[in-house]
Amino acid sequence: MTGTPRLVYDATVAARDVTLRLEVAEGETVALLGPNGAGKSTVLGVIAGLLAPSSGRVELDGRDLAGVPPHRREVALLAQEPLLFPHLSALENVAFGPRSRGDGRSAARTGAREWLDRVGVGDLARRRPHQLSGGQAQRVAVARALAAEPRLLLLDEPMAALDVDVAPALRHLLRGVLAGRTAIVVTHDALDALLLADRVAVVEAGRIVEQGPTTDVLSRPRSAFAARIAGLNLVSGRWDGSAVRGDGIAVSGLPSDDPPAPGEDAVAVFSPTAVSVFRDPPGGSPRNALAATVTELEPLGDRFRVRATAGAIPLQAEVTAAAVAELALVPGDPVNLIVKATEVSVHGALRASSGALPADTVGP
Ligand SMILES: Nc1ncnc2c1ncn2[C@@H]1O[C@H](COP(=O)(O)OP(=O)(O)OP(=O)(O)O)[C@@H](O)[C@H]1O
């Protein structure tokens, strides 16, 4: 990390046995990943000023936040539930922060209208929260958080309370929102971390057990929790319209809800359980066949995790013990890893950018 970090968190909440040290650079999004009760929300609560640490310090741009009330911290918290004021319209909810900061009524409303447009709910400005769907209300909450122009944005599982069919559009919106902003996002979901965060810190039992660039942690997890939720195959490269090409291999797949344009950097993601292992290359099949070398065999109950490298890229397959025995696999063997293109999702790579929302972040 170069320069002074925007956030320095080095604090203990003794009653919850949560002690950790975390830095976030300006413009960086860090995901806190971990099981229930690990202490992720506690950290957000301390930063937001909802919870006092028993010792330590929290600094934002060099300013010690001890004793600073929540509304003067320049930190916005987006929770699982939108938590809008029920008696105010969507527009008034968004204008509330700027108004209480001292903006005039008309300027605050104009700004609020712009934010609602940018998150795709400009036409719902007059509605009260009870007249909004969960996804719409969460968009209003995003607009409200951003209208306050926070130095740091905190997101506590922002997709968790949404229907699965609404979550991808909000995730797409948040990707645009978070580009170039300083943020911490709490999640249980490896895909959220991959798509939203530059860096991941894995929290277990109140401590950081692992941290690093998101793709490293998710593809080569070292902590038990990260291994359980991640252990994904990730191939980074350039999207040519049908395959991601990188480091000597090409992986065909289906663009996700956040598709890259041809020629853009992209990442192909597939589960080890979608990969089968063969000695010989398959003939004339539409599936991906990746020539690889076995590096390690790891028992997982009645299955095996086969670790291999294709070029410089580490990949893994989860196969039955019977298959490993039948193939008589040992480390050093050349194999073909086979995965159907329909099992591979392709996402645009995270871009560190200007902070402007892309025009197409508006979704259903
Ligand atoms: N209001 C509270 N009062 C006392 N202890 C709490 C409270 N909320 C959480 N805890 C405890 O503090 C510890 C950390 O919980 P925290 O909610 O920060 O975890 P988390 O990682 O955010 O979990 P989740 O993913 O379930 O939200 C846990 O032991 C939890 O039981």
Question: Could you explain the architecture of this structure?
Answer:
It holds the Pfam family TOBE. This is Molybdate transport system ATP-binding protein. Keywords: ATP-binding, Molybdenum, Nucleotide-binding, Transport. One of its GO terms (molecular function) is ATP hydrolysis activity. Residues 2-230 form the ABC transporter domain. This protein is α+β, with helices and mostly antiparallel strands and 364 residues long. The chain has two domains: 7-231, Rossmann fold (3-Layer(aba) Sandwich); 233-348, Beta Barrel (OB fold (Dihydrolipoamide Acetyltransferase, E2P)), CATH 2.40.50. Helix content is 24%, strand content 33%. It is built from nine helices and 21 strands. The strands form four sheets. Strands 6-7-8-3-9-10 form a six-stranded mixed β-sheet, sandwiched between helices. A hairpin with a 2-residue loop joins strand 12 (243-246) and strand 13. The longest helix has 14 residues, at 105-118. The radius of gyration is 23 Å and the shape is globular. Bound molecules: adenosine-5'-triphosphate. Residues 16, 18, 34, 36-42 line the site of adenosine-5'-triphosphate.
The biggest sheet amounts to:
6 strands, mixed
- Examine the secondary-structure arrangement and name the CATH architecture of the largest domain: 3-Layer(aba) Sandwich
Structural class: alpha+beta
| Apparent shape | globular
Distance between the termini: 37 Å
* Total of DSSP H or I helical runs spanning 4+ residues: 9
> Might you state the CATH topology name of the largest domain?
Rossmann fold
Q: Which residues form runs of ≥5 with pLDDT under 50?
A: 352-364
Protein name: Molybdate transport system ATP-binding protein
GO biological process, one term: molybdate ion transport
Domain Mop: 283-348
Keywords: ATP-binding, Molybdenum, Nucleotide-binding, Transport
